[in-house]
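Chapter summary example.
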Amino acid sequence: MNNPSPLATVDHRAFAADVEALHKTLKAGLGPADLAHLRRMALWARVCTLLGYATAWIVPNPLSALLMGLGNMGRWTCVTHPVMHRGYDAVPGVPPRYTSKRFATGWRRYLDWLDWLHPDAWAHEHNQLHHYHTGQQQDPDLVERNAKFIRDRRVPRLVKGGLVVLLMMTWKLTYYAPNTFFALKQHRRIRAQTAAQAKAEPLPTMGEVDCLVIPGERVMLPVTAWGVEFWLRCVLPYAALRFGLVPALFLPLGTGAWLAVLINSVLAEVVANVITFVTIAPNHTGDDVYRFEEGFSTRAGFYLQQCAGSVNYPGGSDVKDFLQGYLNYQIEHHVWPGLPLLKYRQAAPQLKAICLKHGVPYIEESVFRRFGKLWAIMMGDADMRRAGQQKQQERGQSNLSGVGRGFEAAPVPDKLI
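The structure predicted for these 417 residues follows.
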């Protein structure tokens, strides 16, 4: 049964005005502190990685794997994520390497962020599709839909739980990398269609593609042209560096040292996968989080969907926030995708007060409690809430300019393949 939308009685114009006034204040406060904070988070990620490798050659051990995994996560969530969202483009004095136009582009991918995910593919899937379709059918990261294969299985719960754990341990390679790559390739294919072709036989978007589990399953094996490209551009470069070249650097210390680094590298990959899954996947999932039947037609509608479709975790210090990848400010990040990390911490109590004032949902709970709600959704024990016809609610309440003006979406990359 669908629950009544909490957005129906919100004064869209007043809510949006308060949100945009706060945004204006935050933008005016951009300065050296934001850049210093980014550099500190980048340093912490590097130090974790270096400390991990400094001890990884001795013997396979959980401490080295944990440090290397934290470094992996920190580089992705605390540096790559905000920089590729153009979070530092407007910060005075920002070095070119921390701007969206330079970071991880071309050969700099190997220096800034070499991972299973291709930066161009992730920029399209995450910055565009996920952020501007949050909780909608076109959201490629809608957990409740993507977990249908597990939710609907009539198998013992132990088997279901095992599938979830296996996904957690491997999800960057088995879910995120292929799904982002397929999303960008499909986008390119759709855009290349002529108007006549699109009218006669429109290609399916990410939310319409028929699949067993996820659309990206089509490229997971190198048996198609796109699959071969995925392996050549995503799987092999990262695997060769992480599990080939880096462990080989320790061969002068003996084959035992090489093997220990290799094993710790594999363990670190599992650690990075589990930590990022536990922090990222619950951000828009739970029986108290809304799915939306349709998109938005105004900026106010955008703000409302981001707040009602996202959750925060408590933080407030560099250490707590770093360990959660600054994903604990997911509501602020989704309302204003193009701000530096430090601004989200500063904005959180103010946006929370604005939401309380206007009766807009603002959920903040521990990451462990939110993971429990995610687990219930993935196991099929709970369902997400359904919002009503929001566009109809927006009409007559607000004449704010529509999407495409005033938003800070990163541009869709054109340089991949």
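To summarize the output: Residues 395-417 have pLDDT under 50 and may be disordered.
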